[in-house]
């Protein structure tokens, strides 16, 4: 469990994190989302005890990480896969951390094996691909077998196989009952892997909701329809739909009416339909809606968190 309470960080006149409170539960993958500069990395650094809060606190498994003698037993983190000594071998890199934590050498081999680097452990890190460095970073996070894992943008720059591997790994950690917090810009990826999302904007909490709840917040069914007579169809649908918008010269997007209802309505009026499909509800769209709201309600974030089902 991670508990963030009224966490605030000022860099001079810049408030990077502003009275932020949320908890991250075990047994789930929690996505940590926010636009560039929202304060994600600063928050993660404070959670890990690498940066000191101006006020408030962050606890991992009930403890502050700063000053822990053997932090790898409490929390494992992947922050920057490039912050490794390129001249060392993968195994050598892990041995340094294992030694300072009093861990046996066999633990190094266990984690190398878990991340699929057993065969590459003797090679120097400068010869590793980005994907291999990410794997090594994750192996380092796992060394102390911690209950809590924190990953900052773990799929950045990875190919399709690497992304899928990370996804399965994160799910596996959550299924083992660990607490998994993972920051990402990739909404589509978060939709596939996260159970819960914590969204921040300008250092403040925007939402703390389950992915399912966030998608439900988008409202009812959404349908795309193409017709040579969008004006007439738009008028015909407007009475019953929640929203009808023009998404192209001959295209409408309709919210709140299912595809059969849209098709039937067009048929009844003799309006030709050239295409009719469901629009998949995406976390990305829910996120845009939510963060647009955050800008609109800047300074009133408690209103948004309350409607999103979270207390701030
Ligand atoms: N060491 C620092 N000194 C001064 N300002 C900083 C420092 N670190 C972060 N900031 C500022 O704090 C704010 C939050 O930055 P942070 O890196 O935490 O955001 P982020 O959400 O992780 O962004 P990104 O997705 O771009 O990594 C930004 O305005 C940034 O410029």
TrEMBL record:
Q: Which residues cross the membrane?
A: none
A GO molecular-function descriptor: ATP hydrolysis activity
The UniProt keyword set, sorted, is: ATP-binding, Nucleotide-binding, Transport
Q: Which InterPro entries match?
A: AAA+_ATPase (IPR003593), ABC_transporter-like_ATP-bd (IPR003439), ABC_transporter-like_CS (IPR017871), P-loop_NTPase (IPR027417)
Please name the PROSITE patterns in this protein's record: ABC_TRANSPORTER_1, ABC_TRANSPORTER_2
Answer whether the UniProt record assigns the keyword Transport to this protein.
yes
Domain ABC transporter: start-end pairs: 2-227
Q: Which domain of life is it from?
A: Bacteria
Q: Which Gene3D superfamilies match?
A: P-loop containing nucleotide triphosphate hydrolases
Cross-referenced PANTHER family = ABC TRANSPORTER, ATP-BINDING PROTEIN
Q: Which family does it belong to?
A: Belongs to the ABC transporter superfamily.
Protein name in UniProt: ABC transporter ATP-binding protein
What organism does this protein naturally occur in? Nocardioides caeni
